[in-house]
Amino acid sequence: MNINLLKDSFLTIIEPTNIMLVVLGLLVGIFLGALPGIGSSMAIVLALPFTYFLDVLPAIAFLSTIYVGSAYGGSVTAILFNTPGTPEAVATTFDGYPMSQQGKSKKALGLAISSSAFGGIFAVILMFSLASILSEVAFKIHASEYFALAILGMTVISALGTSNMVKAIISGLIGYFYFNYWFRSINSYR
């Protein structure tokens, strides 16, 4: 891991414009995540037109914090109304909403934001430490590994699709054509 790259990344992210975009992205993400039916991906899609006038790094920082904020924002409605705002917050309804009914909604929201922050920080540290190793492994994957992955997918389809064979065949064909298209597009870049 190159320490100079980490230093340059840190100096880039603490620029005042980037800090402002990170805070704004977090607030927008929490708001959009709290709206039921708008998940993390939809929040990014809704905010994407606002990044057209930005440079690449501030735009990525803005969209990344929208994703993170919306993942937490879904737990707000899950705790207070038993309606998860995002799919990630479904499990929060099991414990958060009963805590809210007992009058412990502040504690539940505090636990949700602290666990979200801890998980995000842990994931960033893990990705910083494993990114170079994972990129080396990704370039070593060739046709035989893709073939094994395709066989695994067909095995799973055949095991799970015994009750409705037509749906299993259709999903297998969709997967096959998508996989074929994806594999050809990957190989065109190598």
Could you describe the 3D structure shown?
- This protein is mainly α and 190 residues long.
- It folds into two domains: 3-139, no CATH class; 143-189.
- 80% of the residues lie in helices and 0% in strands.
- The protein has helices at 3-13, 16-34, 40-47, 56-81, 92-101, 105-139, 143-160, 165-189.
- α3 crosses α4 (56-81), α4 (56-81) crosses α5 and α7 runs antiparallel to α8 (165-189).
- The protein is globular.
Written as H for each helix and E for each strand, in order along the chain, the element string is HHHHHHHH
Largest sheet: none
Fraction in helix: over 70%
What is the terminal separation in angstroms?
25 Å
Domain count, please report it: 2
Decide which structural class fits the backbone.
mainly alpha
The average pLDDT value, as a whole number, equals 86
Strand content: under 5%
Count the DSSP helices: 8
Anisotropy-based shape = globular
Low-confidence stretches: none
Cα-atom radius of gyration: 21 Å
Task: Give a count of the beta strands, DSSP E runs of length 2 or more.
Answer: 0
Give a short overview.
This protein is mostly helical. The chain is built from eight helices and no strands.
Main attributes?
190 residues, mainly alpha, 8 helices, globular
Helices and strands, with pairings:
Blueprint: H1 3-13, H2 16-34, H3 40-47, H4 56-81, H5 92-101, H6 105-139, H7 143-160, H8 165-189
Helix pairs in contact: 2-4, 3-4, 4-5, 4-6, 5-6, 7-8
